[in-house]
Amino acid sequence: MWVGDSARSKKAQNIGRLINISAIIFCVWTFVFPHPADVLLPIVVAIPILVIGLCWRYPLLYSIVNEDKYSSKVELIKILFLPGVILCLRALMDIVLFEPSQLILPSIFSVLVFVLLIVIVSPSSRRSVITLGSVTLMITPYPIGAIAVLNSLYDHSVPHYYYPTVIYGESSHGGKVVENTLYIEPVKLEEGHLITKLSVSRNVYAETSVGDEVCVVSRSGALGMSWYEVASVAGCKNSQKILL
What we know:
The chain is α+β, with helices and mostly antiparallel strands. The protein is 51% helix and 20% strand. The protein starts with a helix and ends in a 6-residue tail after the last helix.
């Protein structure tokens, strides 16, 4: 019996190691070069759900946190929280919501559901208010990023194209973060939003000069959260979905 348990534990550790390494690779890949997005992003979104599922189905083999350093359980805490950070960063870089406040209610609900699931599958997380608070804080980026990304990734609404002229550009540095902004002639989008400036990617900023047109594509969102993306005019003609 002991030999069987030992073999099972070793197999779980090998599988857990493979899952940890694969999840980290997918997360880094998604952050550095998110293509093909329709494959990578759903995988990253699914990773925390997989972690919860493994800890629930095999509680003697997998855990979110190992409080006992001598435990043979496979710890999955890194890949529970890393996808949320990556998804949030990708959403910030690639997606502009007209009303970011629309994320608040679904994100709060999702956080509460995830915290409840974590408490169920990881009894150690309920032993301390500090631990529970830390878990809640660390899981918060996940629903925000996942909802924003899925809202755009599965958006099959009819896009609206606009070609405003750039008045001037500005690149500001906030520590290690660089924000590239293009100020444009005012344009009123189909959704009724008036925009006079655009946050753009480094590539779009580098390709655009004063007097050039840029392409703004607005969509209604798969989850009803209107958003837009920006590209050079050439980039707009090459792909309906530019950044994703």
